[in-house]
Amino acid sequence: MSKNNPEKIITADQVAQHNTRESCWIIVHGRVYDVTEFLPDHPGGMRIILKYAGQDATEEYDPIHPPDAIVDNLPPSKHLGRLDEGSVESIKQEQRIPTEEEREMAHRHSTKPALSECISLHDLETVARHVMPSKAWMYYSSGADDEITLRANHSAYHRIWFRPRVMRDVSRVHFSTSLLGQKSSMPLYVTATALGKLGHPMGELNLTRSAAKHGVIQMIPTLASCSFDEIRSAALENQTQWLQLYVNRNRDITEKIVRRAESSGVKGLFVTVDAPQLGRREKDMRMKFDDVGTDEQKESGEKIDRSQGAARAISSFIDPSLNWNDMGWLKSITNMPIVLKGVQCWQDAVLAAQHGCAGVVLSNHGGRQLDFAPSGVEILPEVMSALRDHGVSTDKFQVFVDGGVRRASDIIKAVALGAKAVGIGRPFIYAYSAYGEEGVDRAMEILRDEFEMCLRLLGARSLDEVTPEMVNCSNLGSADIPKDYLFTGNYERLSGLNDKMSKL
Amino acid sequence: MSKNNPEKIITADQVAQHNTRESCWIIVHGRVYDVTEFLPDHPGGMRIILKYAGQDATEEYDPIHPPDAIVDNLPPSKHLGRLDEGSVESIKQEQRIPTEEEREMAHRHSTKPALSECISLHDLETVARHVMPSKAWMYYSSGADDEITLRANHSAYHRIWFRPRVMRDVSRVHFSTSLLGQKSSMPLYVTATALGKLGHPMGELNLTRSAAKHGVIQMIPTLASCSFDEIRSAALENQTQWLQLYVNRNRDITEKIVRRAESSGVKGLFVTVDAPQLGRREKDMRMKFDDVGTDEQKESGEKIDRSQGAARAISSFIDPSLNWNDMGWLKSITNMPIVLKGVQCWQDAVLAAQHGCAGVVLSNHGGRQLDFAPSGVEILPEVMSALRDHGVSTDKFQVFVDGGVRRASDIIKAVALGAKAVGIGRPFIYAYSAYGEEGVDRAMEILRDEFEMCLRLLGARSLDEVTPEMVNCSNLGSADIPKDYLFTGNYERLSGLNDKMSKL
Amino acid sequence: MSKNNPEKIITADQVAQHNTRESCWIIVHGRVYDVTEFLPDHPGGMRIILKYAGQDATEEYDPIHPPDAIVDNLPPSKHLGRLDEGSVESIKQEQRIPTEEEREMAHRHSTKPALSECISLHDLETVARHVMPSKAWMYYSSGADDEITLRANHSAYHRIWFRPRVMRDVSRVHFSTSLLGQKSSMPLYVTATALGKLGHPMGELNLTRSAAKHGVIQMIPTLASCSFDEIRSAALENQTQWLQLYVNRNRDITEKIVRRAESSGVKGLFVTVDAPQLGRREKDMRMKFDDVGTDEQKESGEKIDRSQGAARAISSFIDPSLNWNDMGWLKSITNMPIVLKGVQCWQDAVLAAQHGCAGVVLSNHGGRQLDFAPSGVEILPEVMSALRDHGVSTDKFQVFVDGGVRRASDIIKAVALGAKAVGIGRPFIYAYSAYGEEGVDRAMEILRDEFEMCLRLLGARSLDEVTPEMVNCSNLGSADIPKDYLFTGNYERLSGLNDKMSKL
Amino acid sequence: MSKNNPEKIITADQVAQHNTRESCWIIVHGRVYDVTEFLPDHPGGMRIILKYAGQDATEEYDPIHPPDAIVDNLPPSKHLGRLDEGSVESIKQEQRIPTEEEREMAHRHSTKPALSECISLHDLETVARHVMPSKAWMYYSSGADDEITLRANHSAYHRIWFRPRVMRDVSRVHFSTSLLGQKSSMPLYVTATALGKLGHPMGELNLTRSAAKHGVIQMIPTLASCSFDEIRSAALENQTQWLQLYVNRNRDITEKIVRRAESSGVKGLFVTVDAPQLGRREKDMRMKFDDVGTDEQKESGEKIDRSQGAARAISSFIDPSLNWNDMGWLKSITNMPIVLKGVQCWQDAVLAAQHGCAGVVLSNHGGRQLDFAPSGVEILPEVMSALRDHGVSTDKFQVFVDGGVRRASDIIKAVALGAKAVGIGRPFIYAYSAYGEEGVDRAMEILRDEFEMCLRLLGARSLDEVTPEMVNCSNLGSADIPKDYLFTGNYERLSGLNDKMSKL
């Protein structure tokens, strides 16, 4: 909104008159915007906006958009002014009747199992899957293309086996560590994920508060549903947070974000490098179609491919030209340690070290970008080996991995192979989508208990004692390819005469 | 039909009297033929012809046969003359009532999803599978024997994984290329497939027109439903087309076809070398039996194995004696670059280069010929290596692959391993079977968008930057064998006492 | 029966009075036997005999027993005499009413598909499975223990892939060969299997007659339902037959059998060496229990383990002491080439050659003996290699394999790896169980057509051109283990909270 | 209970008054205990005790607890005295009505198959699974975490194949052996498992008695439902038994147990080293929740995590500090051979030999401790090789394995790879849970018959002839990972347009 002019006051009735494709005003967070010209450019399609034409769209807008999206995307001339709150009464009186899905969800929430029945992260995910709105579940759980990498991220851990030691005094086991110079109670951190309010109205704040209690570091996402300030404010004084960064085409915006983060006490900068363009996520795309209905679409003769639009629109904000030459500039604007998030081969890990990064996250964006990209843990051994071969100290240059983790034993496997810590994203989101902040607490407790048990049974008293010899990863590179459901779904099975004979 | 004699005019009534096994006339494209003696030789069995005895068989004939089949297969004496169109009225008046299947298909077509809902080639295939007549679906989708190779063609791509690079300026990515000296907007071409009208009345013309719009090369099939001239005429002036060739036992016929193609502007000759005899395709064979009904068959005491007949009949036109010694003759009749389509081992690729071919297509005929033949992409690395070892320039001698491709990422994997381009057949057929020409357009757009995204996420700005180091094919040769449905369908599972106990 | 004494004549009424456990007479093939004392020793349990106490048991006896079993197993004193055929009337008048299963089977036979609809050996098996009595199907199809080897026999072929050659003149392809000096139209033979009449009243004669027509060699089983003489007599004059031999504890019996075979014109002796004791075949064992009913059993307090009895009983006839030292004796009693059937490692193949055998069959008895024995084709490469290393000429010393074959392409793979021919057992039994002799004819035709097509598509004009280079068996030794149904059937799947949530 | 004071006599009425959370008395085996203060510390949660507040809890207590648990866990002051048996009448009169599950179980027991129908250990397990109470089945069958190791224990055997020899005189085969100097009729022993009465009221005594009959050694568990003295007393005079030992934090208790065992004639001491803390067994944990009901739980606001409590409680008795330095002490208190049970890598096997142990059991506690620990048989080859490399005589130092065994052929595979014998646990428990002592007899007979058959078919006349060359374990280390049901249960399959099309 415009900074210096006194804002115009607009009544709800005035807004209500602009409820057509030809003139479309909407209210978001008490401000009125003219989105008529923006309609065809909306990444989510124009139909969803027209649903709120002349009305307050805040509830729909909130979980989907970064807080300032509308302000940033509309020219100042379309920021029409402030809503006359007093005028709203008449509109609000049309008490919104909960939808079928909302009532169903409410019922499910009220009958879900007690939190203590959740005894693994899988359980929290199961509950979330059943109590979340489909749209949120599909958005969070989706992966790229055939979701091969999405699933391989997890199954890779199943190809790493332990070689436990016995007859060691494991009365006491410790698993705290130091990440980028900050203390962490466990070798894990809460990694950045977008649109946190889709699953729960408190969004990312659930993570901030639980992380504080459990001594775990949180990475703040650029595309959070809560604003950066909200998330920082929710943190305790000594709580460590990092910032995940999408570099903007407009470097000034990025510089402003980075400087503000550093001055507010953020302790690390994780630059996402695996998303010069957003990946193709079928489940998410499919949801959009269901939203608008195919019949209307066909009648309207509309041929716009909204899915493409979405990818292109977001690409317009993320800078696909980011490259190694930009490292100098990045280092010039901050003293925070810089970590590249999304490295997928040893060559780039070595380059990151040589360009002065503090570390890398071996990650494929949770399987949401390039399908058939390898999982972080799968390339971890060759990355560690290449860093050593290139004289990089892996004490100072820290290697993280993320993707597919569901148990502390997964993390211990990664630690054995050289990772400093592992990022966990979806499981924590599912935890709060099902049970709010307490769900995240429960997830943290489960992990802590699993760490204690697993280290004891492995015969390791601290993370230092979790050595490469304690795992057998000889099958890590072997073929174990998740099923291709789309291809096999179209394959017509040979049945010979079996069908015929069964009917005799 | 006879060239110089004025054609006799025959009335529909006259034709209608020859409606028995003893004397069987049929009308095709306005000409009348006596097929009585041909009945036992008909590859598809005599029953299907007798169904149209004394009537117009054009509608049934059209999608199944190359346009001139009847003319070529019957001696001139059986070309009885031209139908008196005026006499047809009485026959046509018996308004044909649509069959159950036709009405079902019409219903499905009218309720199928909007084209924009198809967001992958798999979707187009899914729609096609449901809106096509069974016979067409079974013909197109069938593979040889146990369809192991059919499915392995696709799954081989899933054993090739990416090694993506990050921090590269991928603002702009290009994927145009040059194939046999002709421009192509993408590293793919429309490969030849038979009987295009089974899926859509416009048949191969759907491909011609869409290929033109998208700057993609089309390979014209010998066994097209549309005639060569129709397909050439539908092409734009600068549109590149190639010709797929089955060499005829009668070399004069082949020479005529090749010379006509070259003079009409065709830019490449792809000689099919993997089909000295047609493969055994169970789904297709099964359809024929259902067509005629088993009861009648048993009553008639007929023991002819029509399936064998089909293979033998078509073999009689394709020359199984074609061998390396014929290369001299082939090169003598054309200046078009000659590419052998259906090479399945490195030795034959090297021989092709040594015999002056312009390239090879590593192909197993879409899994329709010899089951357990390897997929093209699976042998690609050893072929490239052998060519280099034998001093063959792989710039000049171009290697193509086909079979099993469903995504641009599949193609990029093949390109990384050395392929110049990839042939796509069934997916485009399914596209137009479901949505006509627009379906093919959609398939092309999907592929184009996938190319752009995939290259960007891979960190490659052009096909030159897609190098062997960008893929991990260490599992390409590992065992990953599609399920043997016929064997397992007959296997009686051990159940121990489980069945018994379940009933307690 | 006693040779020299005139037989006593006994009436049906007399027999009918001995219908109890205390005195049990039965009629088999017109002779009367007192089996009272034999009851507890009967391998199949006493109950099944008591069912026919005082009656004619021929129909039940016939398919299960070698023709002379009863004569050989009972002491002469129990051979009571000949039945007075005239006295039978009264018994026969109780017209036997067909059982439920018999009527069901008759219905299935009358509605089964036309033979020409069977387009692969799998189809013939499918029909057989549905039209055979359960007991026969279970007996033929069963394997040892978990049936791992049974299934691995087939799946091993799926780990061998072709490397086809193109551009060879394959106008004419030949696949006749010479086995132990005898002509064979295809590189296969009908191998020996027991109890042929379970599937069809003509039993093994179906095989003899069809083999004659197709120029294929038949191996006559020791445990055939038809007698040796019947099978020899059914052969054409120039038809080649071999004899399969279980060596008897009583070597005189064996010598008599062998000499009779040689003098009657049998051309090869296949000594089974993988069955010193019969394997454990669960499906077959399970059938026996169902036969007698568990309630009666419990009431009777009977604790005899009939399954154990069966194995022990048959072991008492087969000599488990047979060893290499017996080779001298074996060679002394015959000039027929001797082949050891059931060799399962290269060491024994080399020993066989060194002991003067004419060849070996790499076989695990169709997966019916030791589970987890390797398939013949899986050890074929190492056997061929070891023979060469030990200076054995593999022209003279012929290597056969059997087990798991369903297509000519399987056979060609074995030939490529060095096998002279492949034995086929169950598929031919299934063929005649479904369609009698014509079924076997059909199977032979299918194989012949597959040979022709496969050789042509492989680029081989004769078996000589089917070389090791034409197959890729690099995955032959890789793990591909059939599912363990009994173990997994007992495993209780983890479901987490999924079951609970699904019910909300 | 207090040793020297005369016990107070308490009436049932008195007990009945203490039936609340505030004052809770219970009767166990005729003694009265005040458990009020113990309630929050009860590993199984307080709710289950409160169910019996003021009543006799013996029936519930018995199968779950080691006999002296209550005496050991409560301070003497809470041992209130002896129950006045005469006073019980009134309570007992409320004739307990069998629960729904009990009646269902009784019905199942009465209709289960005859024992002779069980022809493999799998069958006994199947029957047990259906006739046992859920709680018992879940306790016995459960494994750690995702039960990957649980299942891998069995599937590892399926990656070991035989290389059978033929033409050996196998008239007689022997498979008796000597374990730690004691005779054993087969190369197997009954290994220790906890809570034997859950499956059958006679508990471990079923094993003792059957083991005696079959010449098999039994290992007595520390956590048996029957007391040590009961189990020793049930043994025959010459029957060999071993003792499984959890070392207590209080070494005096351990010393007392060990000395008592040795003086009573126990012949071997198996120290469990893989359980410094109990593993996480989901099925078992899940049972506890169902027991108490989630609604009550929520109302009560109770947040205690009973599952954690259980692990911690039992950890408080087992000493997690046990280490190699304790070996001197252990050897000082006994002359029995000491074997470490739960070794999981070659390094610890070598250390055990160097510390004077008599052997090791390669074991992962039946897959109940650390998930992704390797199976015993999988590491057997490297253990044997390392022992030889370190100069350890594997005649004197004996290596055992356990876990996953279901057939004698499994055991023979382990013997071929160097194991002296194999421990069998669950299968014998299932056997008696289904059929009592006779079930164990049946299991022993089945194994004995399988040994005889398997050795004969393998061509080995004794265990000495079962050599490493007789097995092919080249795939033993290959990836064959049991399915991850929790992860895949949450995965939302991609279905493309298939669902939509199926509804057209």
Can you give me a brief rundown of this structure?
Chains A, B, C, D: One of its GO terms (molecular function) is metal ion binding. The structure is a homotetramer of 504-residue chains. With 504 residues, chain A is of the alpha/beta class.
CATH superfamily of the largest domain in chain A: Aldolase class I
The CATH architecture of the largest domain in chain A can be given as: Alpha-Beta Barrel
Helix tally of chain A equals: 23
Biggest contact: A-B, 60 and 56 residues
Q: What proportion strand of chain A? A: 5-15%
Are there runs of chain A of 5+ residues with pLDDT below 50, and where? 291-315
Tell me the overall shape of chain A: globular
Structural class of chain A comes to: alpha/beta
Broad CATH class of the largest domain in chain A: Alpha Beta
Cα radius of gyration of chain A in angstroms:
25 Å
Helix content of chain A: 40-55%
Q: Compute the number of structural domains of chain A.
A: 2
Give me the side-by-side strand order of the main sheet of chain A. 8-9-10-11-12-13-14-15
Looking at the chains present, what oligomeric state does this protein adopt? Answer: homotetramer
Q: CA-to-CA gap between the ends of chain A?
A: 75 Å
Mean pLDDT of chain A: 89
User: What is CATH's topology name of the largest domain in chain A?
Assistant: TIM Barrel
> For the report, how would you describe the main beta sheet of chain A?
8 strands, parallel, barrel
Region (Disordered) (chains A, B, C, D): 76-112
Subunit structure (chains A, B, C, D): Homotetramer.
Family (chains A, B, C, D): In the N-terminal section; belongs to the cytochrome b5 family. In the C-terminal section; belongs to the FMN-dependent alpha-hydroxy acid dehydrogenase family.
Domain FMN hydroxy acid dehydrogenase (chains A, B, C, D): 113-476
